[in-house]
Specification:
Helix content: over 70%
Oligomer: single chain
Structural class: mainly alpha
Largest sheet: none
CATH architecture: Up-down Bundle
CATH topology: Growth Hormone, Chain: A
CATH class: Mainly Alpha
Radius of gyration: 21 Å
Number of helices: 19
Amino acid sequence: MTAHGDSSVPFSTRASAGRAAGTATVTTALILTLALQSAVPPFATDMYTPAFPRVTADLATSASLVGLTLTMFFLGMALGQLLGGPLSDQRGRRTPMIAGGLICTLGAVGCAFAPSIGLLIVFPSGAGLRRRLCGGGRPCRRCRRRQGRPAGQGDVDHDGSRWAGADGRPVLGGTVLTLGGTWRTVFWFLVGLGLLMMITAIVFVPESLPVEQRHGGGLRLFASGLSEVLRIRLFVGYMLTAALSGLTMMAYIANSSYVLQEQKGLQPMPFALFFASTALSQILLSIVNAKIVGRHFRPRSLIGFGLTLATLAVAALTVGVFALDTPLLLTCAGFLVLMAVQAFIFGNANALAAAEAPHIAGAASAVLGVTQAVAMATSAPLASSGGAATAVPMIWVMIAGVAGSLFAYLVLARPSADRTIEP
């Protein structure tokens, strides 16, 4: 089973058939449109993060409830992960993409007008759902990249790390927040991007799945592969390694604005610049990882290296928070290292997990995505529950995440482990 079609028909064959039908001509406008479709949802989270303290104050709420807005985004991602493939198999790729742009726009409008934290918690789920609802989402891209390619040979998946802000998105958010004077300006900016997504999808995206190739039963196929993929011990080990490392990273993303802005006094723009620097360090190391994996180092060795540095970073942050009153330089250094080394963990762990289940690639990819989304959804409100008062909850979430990642890597994903879990 694949994420978006019959496993008996290779993707290259299906794509060729689509092109022959005149439905999948690749143009520059199409490439740019698809890039926009993928970029806007991460824009939403990264631009919004610098505004957390202002949202807390303006809506007279708690940091934990503000963290729940990220939780809803990731739960929307998880739901879209399950619905996106079957829906695009039944309705084609173009219609769900257009509908996704509309959902994203309406969600941003709702956030911009939200008079209470309750409504602000509800509306971000639309952006997360849209992230996975449109055709050609992450499960499909993973399966397409990995067909016929062994783990560690160029098939490293950076989707899990790229969402966190591999460019200037946080800086843009800080700029909009500074110039606009209110966190609602960020969402009005996202309304414009959502409209742009929808319009470009209507104008430039052709239907790439002919009617005769559409089919139902996607959820049943997913369910049938789910029990099988969860019985593969090494898959589960690498899946949890990535997901729990994501939980650790999300603790930084959800609570860093409170620690650095409220506790240490950084303004939105300096904070956004620092946030962007941690994201940039991650993408740079992702490039390094792609260059050396399989050529000079095994993927598993790089995961171990990344987890070792992540553990040291969490240890330094723990000492800083519990014994040194959260010193700015040590805290920033810990955050930077923690974010950067995810480049060695996410892609390699996902690639090794997928390599354990090539015969059920669609189910495996969906499980990877759902597990990571749920882990991040769980982390956000817990890590941010201390708000401006204390960073202790963030530290405990980080400790739990890195300890869980190490256990999954060293025990469940150990090379000598049996390939399947006994009933």
